[in-house]
Amino acid sequence: MKAGDKAKRLRIYISSTDKYEHSPLYEVIVYAAREKGIAGATVLRGIMGYGSSSEVYTSKLWEITEKVPLVVDIVDDPVKISALLEALEPIFKKSGKGHIVTEEETTILLHRTGIKK
Questions:
Q1: What sign has the CA pseudo-torsion 108, 114, 101, 57?
Q2: d(CA 69, CA 47)
Q3: Where on the phi/psi map is residue 20: left (φ > 0), alpha (ψ -120 to 50), or beta?
Q4: CATH number, domain containing residue 94
Q5: How many domains does the chain divide into?
Q6: Is residue 42 part of a domain?
Q7: Which range of residues forms the domain containing residue 83?
Q8: Smallest Cα–Cα separation from 73: which of 40, 105, 48, 49?
Q9: Which residues of the chain have pLDDT under 50?
Q10: Is residue 117 part of a domain?
Q11: Are the C-beta atoms of 111 and 2 separated by less than 8 Å?
């Protein structure tokens, strides 16, 4: 990816307690993205949120809570994003939880690989 390229941004909203088989769902998503050659994935931990249950979960300094909202944020070429979504579909079905997945068009403004040339 380089500046000016069209890309897609994939956002997956899940809970920190969501699992796939015996692994945290966010880890499964990140490893699947890496296997598909996606440029990168970031897991963001929310401090407060609610989902389909309408139960509010929060992470406060004085509370010990395990369940908080997470967002997995991924940006790459539209073809790679489509391939990743196809690979994730059976994982979402099997995990049996309510997830929200969004996709939007975006433009790469800067992409540094960290590799010096």
A1: negative
A2: 7
A3: beta
A4: 3.30.70.120
A5: 1
A6: yes
A7: 6-107
A8: 40
A9: none
A10: no
A11: yes
Helix axes 25-35, 78-95, angle to 10 degrees: 150
pLDDT in tens, 16-41: 889 999 999 999 999 999 999 998 89
Give the tokens for residue 6: 């069209």
Instruction: Tell me which DSSP letter residue 56 carries.
Output: E
| pTM for this prediction | 0.84
Instruction: Quote the CA–CA distance of 38 and 83 in Å, as a whole number.
Output: 10
**Tokens standing for residue 92:** 């979402």
Q: Which two structure tokens, joined as six digits, stand for 70?
A: 């997470």
**Could you give the 3-state DSSP secondary structure of residue 105?**
strand
DSSP class of 26: H
CA distance 64 to 81: 35
Q: Alpha-carbon distance 104 to 77, whole Å? A: 12
What is the model's pLDDT at position 74?
97
For tokens 């068009």, the residue is 105
